[in-house]
Write a structure and sequence with these properties.
The complex is a heterodimer of chains A (about 140) and B (about 120). With about 140 residues, chain A is of the alpha+beta class. Helix content of chain A is about 35%, strand content about 30%. Chain A has a single domain (about 1-135), classed as Histidine kinase-like ATPase, C-terminal domain (Heat Shock Protein 90), CATH 3.30.565. Chain A is built from five helices and five strands. Chain B has about 120 residues and is an alpha/beta fold. Chain B has a single domain (about 10-120), classed as HprK N-terminal domain-like (Udp-n-acetylmuramoylalanyl-d-glutamate--2,6- Diaminopimelate Ligase, Chain: A, domain 1). In chain B, helix 2 links the parallel strand 4 and strand 5. Classes of the chains: A alpha+beta (about 140), B alpha/beta (about 120).
């Protein structure tokens, strides 16, 4: 199964729409509840990051019998130092993002904690590409 | 003494907090065992526990989205902060109960703790 969604930078009222759709789909597929929760938390963090930092983004979701793979591709400022961005407490979020209850510098590390595999590539001035993979068999 | 043996449902929580359930989605008989109080949604998203009650003063659509992703059953908005129609609709769609309470986060937390609702940490 393949789904694609578009995310608009700065549109906080829509942030989380894709994560919500993916949650519904995984529920319909009877995926384990803990796997669903980890997946949508990682995805939601990433989706909020696009809204908070990028101009626009695309989310491609692929589901096969073994796993869910999510590719988030944004056009935005990029991340100059990914290692630094992974540190808890480091944030470049605007006051508007903080007013929404985010921007505490916890997002990337929480994405890592909720993914079986997380890859982040970024080009400053162009954008960021995030790949999240979670396997459906929790014992893996 | 804390009444740790009594199961506390949403209806009882609304009563204890002098509040009301404003959504149709949550079953008033739903039992709540644990709670977390925060205005920082980033922190809520790191919690290891499901089916919690969230006490917050942060009134925006992302509070509902955060609850949806975290499998939180109920949100208590403290200090009489009113939610928007958009927020109520999303909560109803996603099966999350919303309670309005006039109490402060501190007071509401204390009352629920005393009623036997467990903390996450």
């Amino acid at each position: 199964m393949h789904f694609e969604y578009h995310v608009e930078g700065g549109n906080f009222s829509q942030a989380g729409f894709t994560s919500s759709q993916v949650k519904k789909t995984l529920k319909q597929l009877n995926v384990d509840g803990d796997v669903i929760r980890r997946t949508v938390i990682a995805l939601y963090e990433a989706e909020v990051n696009i809204v908070a930092h990028a101009y626009k983004g695309k989310i491609a979701v692929d589901i096969d019998p073994e796993k869910i793979s999510i590719l988030l591709d944004d056009e935005g400022p990029g991340i100059p130092d990914i290692q630094k961005a992974m540190e808890v407490g480091y944030s470049t979020a605007t006051p508007q993002v903080r007013e929404m209850g985010f921007g505490a510098g916890m997002g990337l590390s929480n994405m890592k904690n909720n993914s079986d595999r997380l890859d982040i590539d970024s080009v400053v001035g162009k954008g960021t590409r995030v790949m999240i993979i979670n396997y459906f068999n929790p014992t893996r | 003494m804390a009444a740790t043996n009594n199961l506390v449902n949403l209806e009882k929580i609304a009563q204890l907090l002098d509040g009301q359930i404003i959504t149709d989605a949550g079953n008033p008989d739903r039992i709540i065992e644990g709670a977390f109080a925060s205005d920082l949604m980033s922190d809520v998203l790191t919690l290891p526990t499901k089916h919690l009650l969230l006490l917050t003063g942060l009134v925006n659509i992302q509070a509902i989205r955060t609850a949806e992703m975290s499998d939180i059953d109920c949100i208590v908005f403290v200090r009489n902060k009113k939610v928007t129609v958009e927020m109520t609709n999303l909560a109803n769609e996603t099966g999350i109960a919303i309670i309005h309470s006039p109490f402060s986060m501190y007071k509401a937390s204390g009352i629920l703790y005393q009623a036997g609702i467990k903390p996450v940490y």
